[in-house]
Amino acid sequence: MKQDLLTFSNWTPEAMHKLLNLAVEIKQSPSSYSNVLAGKSVVALFEKPSLRTRVSFDIGINRLGGHMVYLDSQGGKLAGREDAVDMAANLACWADAIVARVFSHSTLEQFSAASKVPVVNALCDKYHPCQALADYLTVFERFGKTQGITMAYIGDGNNVTHSLLIAGALLGCNQVVVTPEGHECDAEIVAHAKKLAEQTGATIVESYDVSAADGSDVIYADTWLSMGDETPLADIKAKFMPYQVNEALMESTGASYVMHCQPAHRDLEITGSLIDSDKSLLMQQAENRMHGQNAILTQLLSA
């Protein structure tokens, strides 16, 4: 029976740890996995533009011995040409998996229902599971564990935050989410993450006050405007500037490292000097996108 990865919401702590350990192993011994996708093709369908997701999947699939077919639904004039269910059913006739970076989670659900091959969420409006796996691989490499580490996310509650909460709860990583009023995470997703956290002893705290991040091991920043959001920056800058991740915040919280999923806007949500500092894990996160995604594809396709 095929297995999709649309979100980690229905995963167990054991399954999450197993996937993380596989990502560690693939990164440390890539030659041992150089043929797991031999003879297999993966279609990558993108409704949204990308740098890290597209390149890391393309090169990663190649390193596993597979072949990636990239489809730009906007530039390739595929958008609106046929129903999502028909597109997914057709792609499944040829491909061994479908990787999709889409605007709406409902599109992924339609793909999943129509496709006989695994569907991987490369980003949607609700979740970004591939990013979360890469981030916790980075945390594991820096601290030797995820259990008991505290990550503080500061900024707009969004798809990245949701997946960090879910995966972090499964891995026992304490979560602090600090947002301006009106920019909170989805309440249902937070409630579900708290239920998952009960299994691992992780804590989840929500706040509007950046002082809630005091004592955190890692500070996590993200763009104030999600891709596709056309709200003028000037309209939100005043509200978000008090939440800028900068050197003063790192010092006051005592955090050892700063993370950001990128693209980062220097001297807006995070200072450029902090990005370039020895506290920055941004490039390690970016590299780990490939290793985490390779673990996902290995698990889904090498059975």
From TrEMBL:
What InterPro entries would the database entry show?
Asp/Orn_carbamoyltranf_P-bd, Asp/Orn_carbamoylTrfase, Asp/Orn_carbamoylTrfase_sf, Asp_carbamoyltransf_Asp/Orn-bd, Orn/put_carbamltrans
- The UniProt record lists the Aspartate/ornithine carbamoyltransferase Asp/Orn-binding domain at 147-298
EC annotation from Swiss-Prot or TrEMBL: 2.1.3.3
Coiled coil spans:
none
What keywords were assigned to this record?
A: Transferase
Asked whether the UniProt record includes Transferase among its keywords, one would answer yes
- Any one GO BP annotation for this protein: citrulline biosynthetic process
Supply one GO molecular-function term.
amino acid binding
| Pfam families xrefs | OTCace (PF00185), OTCace_N (PF02729)
SUPFAM superfamilies given in the database record: Aspartate/ornithine carbamoyltransferase
Q: Which family does it belong to?
A: Belongs to the aspartate/ornithine carbamoyltransferase superfamily. OTCase family.
Q: Which NCBIfam families match?
A: orni_carb_tr (TIGR00658), PRK00779.1 (NF001986), PRK14805.1 (NF011380)
This chain belongs to the protein called Ornithine carbamoyltransferase
Protein's organism: Alteromonas naphthalenivorans
